[in-house]
Amino acid sequence: MIKKGIGRQIVLHYFIVVFVTLFMVEVIFAFALRTYYYQTIENHMSNHATRTTDYFQRFVKLYAERDPDYFTEILRTFELDNTELMVLNRKGEVKASSTQFQADKPIQTSDVPQAVAGGVGKWVGRQATGEWVMAVSTPLQVRGENRYIVRYVTSLEDVNAKLMNMTLLSVGVGSAVLALVTLFSIGLANSIVKPINNIRAVSAQMAKGKFDARIKGNYKYELGELAATLNYMAEEIVRSNQIKDDFISSISHELRTPLTGIKGWSETLTSGGFDPEETKIGMQIISKETERLIGLVEEMLDFSKLQQNEMKLVIGKVNLKELLQETMLNVWAKAEQKQIQLKLDDRAERPVIVVGDGNRLKQVFLNLVDNAVKFSNENSWIHLVITLKDSSTALVQVIDSGIGISEEHLGKVSDRFFQVNHNRGGTGLGLAISKQIVELHKGEMQIHSELGAGTTVSVTLPLLEMVGEAGSGAETAERAETSGLLTGKEQMGQDGMNEDA
């Protein structure tokens, strides 16, 4: 007995389809075979009956007046082997028979009325003796009147026996075919169910947290793709867990550093005995480290809100050139420390206006430029380029001549918690947050880099006139400004993005 499941369903479906097909073929074959044999017998008797009536009519014209017993001679002349030939009158009474058997009552089968009406009658049925027979009757005219009926009767018992044998033989062949198909379907079902059971067992281990388990076996087609997908999923979970562990370690260090500074200076200042200048320096350090802590916490809060689709945007008109100028002012001092040249290149022939949250977009570009400064060598350069990609899209590129990113890490830098170099600090969330903010603005962020040759980050955003229907983009932005929030209000401090991926 096949175990309940997909295997049983496969075998059952194959069995039903083949059984129904074979049953239909068997029925059609049996019907066609019976029709062929019966039709052959009927044609043979019909042709012979027609010839008999032709000769009989000639004999009647020549001898009927002188020989009242002409029926007997004619029956002997035209009888068939294994067939009874009878001459009936219009009432169905037997006038003569080749078997010399005299019926005690008129014959009323359906072939007789058909012959009386002038046609060729046929009847298949069971006689009083229980024997299956076929009868063919034709009319016999005497002086232009249908006065007699020539009736041939033959037994169908031998034919039916042969038909039954052939039907049983075909049923046997069909059963053998059905058995072979069932065995084949069982093998096919096992070839499908066995890998599925293996995949299910390994998946159960993964569900229990054993992510080192892998599906082994060279499976083909969809099963192979499923196995590869599950193995890839396990690898990604292991990698994500490792990245998460690294993140926890890194963020713990990032949080401890400013907290240590704040605690140390607060205890020092509490002890007293410092002149106003030293006290001012200590308070500045405490303020700076506090802002750093706020930035780290806000970055993690932003990421949490993005993951839960709770990021709130204040929608309005945003001039990209003015936004990038403000961004450059924010990082100017940091770039000056490394003698890095910042340059804004506006290649658009008109003001580039987009609809979005100015503070969130500034957060994106602050993170990108801050990353460029952090990963650039001294006496290098960073260019911010504004262009119109097409009539509906603005393109902003942050191009640096820094250390670049290897091909191995390029596809992962936008992943959450990922850090190429843990020694440079940060939470590993900056680029992931930036990418999601750009996508919230219906834009796209792409990173192109070559190790040792610099990095280019491209951000595309839809222009103002493409936000709504034609001619209604400005009205859309104005309505957004007057109504305030599309999803609520929330601001982010500019300094919060100085810690990157």
From TrEMBL:
<keyword id="KW-0902">Two-component regulatory system</keyword>
<dbReference type="InterPro" id="IPR003661">
    <property type="entry name" value="HisK_dim/P_dom"/>
</dbReference>
<dbReference type="GO" id="GO:0016301">
    <property type="term" value="F:kinase activity"/>
</dbReference>
<dbReference type="Pfam" id="PF00672">
    <property type="entry name" value="HAMP"/>
</dbReference>
<dbReference type="InterPro" id="IPR003660">
    <property type="entry name" value="HAMP_dom"/>
</dbReference>
<protein>
    <recommendedName>
        <fullName>histidine kinase</fullName>
        <ecNumber>2.7.13.3</ecNumber>
    </recommendedName>
</protein>
<keyword id="KW-0472">Membrane</keyword>
<keyword id="KW-0808">Transferase</keyword>
<dbReference type="Pfam" id="PF02518">
    <property type="entry name" value="HATPase_c"/>
</dbReference>
<keyword id="KW-0547">Nucleotide-binding</keyword>
<dbReference type="InterPro" id="IPR003594">
    <property type="entry name" value="HATPase_dom"/>
</dbReference>
<dbReference type="InterPro" id="IPR036890">
    <property type="entry name" value="HATPase_C_sf"/>
</dbReference>
<dbReference type="InterPro" id="IPR005467">
    <property type="entry name" value="His_kinase_dom"/>
</dbReference>
<keyword id="KW-0597">Phosphoprotein</keyword>
<keyword id="KW-0067">ATP-binding</keyword>
<keyword id="KW-0418">Kinase</keyword>
<dbReference type="InterPro" id="IPR004358">
    <property type="entry name" value="Sig_transdc_His_kin-like_C"/>
</dbReference>
<feature type="region of interest" description="Disordered">
    <location>
        <begin position="470"/>
        <end position="501"/>
    </location>
</feature>
<feature type="domain" description="HAMP">
    <location>
        <begin position="190"/>
        <end position="242"/>
    </location>
</feature>
<dbReference type="Pfam" id="PF00512">
    <property type="entry name" value="HisKA"/>
</dbReference>
<keyword id="KW-1003">Cell membrane</keyword>
<feature type="transmembrane region" description="Helical">
    <location>
        <begin position="168"/>
        <end position="193"/>
    </location>
</feature>
<dbReference type="InterPro" id="IPR036097">
    <property type="entry name" value="HisK_dim/P_sf"/>
</dbReference>
<feature type="domain" description="Histidine kinase">
    <location>
        <begin position="250"/>
        <end position="465"/>
    </location>
</feature>
<feature type="transmembrane region" description="Helical">
    <location>
        <begin position="12"/>
        <end position="37"/>
    </location>
</feature>
<keyword id="KW-1133">Transmembrane helix</keyword>
<keyword id="KW-0812">Transmembrane</keyword>
